[in-house]
Design brief:
Distance between the termini: 25 Å
Shape: globular
Order of helices and strands: EHHHEHHHHHH
Strand order of the largest sheet: 1-2
Helix content: 55-70%
Number of domains: 2
Oligomer: single chain
Number of strands: 2
Length: 166
Amino acid sequence: MFRKTDMGAEEMRTRAHALSPKLRQLLIMIDGKTPAGQLALQLPEKEMIHRLMELEWDGFIERVGGVSAGGAAATPKAAPAPAAAVSLESATISAGQMARIRTVLEMSNQNQLAGALDNLLHQLHGSMDKAALEAAIGHWLQMMRERGHDGAAQTYLAQIRAALKN
């Protein structure tokens, strides 16, 4: 679930950032009460995730409970997701899927972790080892949680899951 930040509310009033029509439409629908999956915007899941991430990165929206008050609420909600997101043993992963997943991890490393995963990502470059990728995702998720970025981690995990579906 997302809510508008002060910047998002200001954008609704002023249109100062000239958002695209689809981003603006999505921003309008975000109310802090409706889960992202239930927003009435007719977009494929992958495109919806991308647009939500874009609004979040640009500071127009934030996850409800993802900052300080969400510590207790976010932990139980997030617990099942990592297992589903990182269990790759039965999956067949293409080079394209690996590249998309590494890209998601690289974005997170740059945006939230200040390069803390550089060595790990360097080791993954060009690798098709599912066990190494699974371990990397687990390590990444742990770092995201430790640094208070569980909300953003869930958004990235959704994008990883979407990459695995394709």
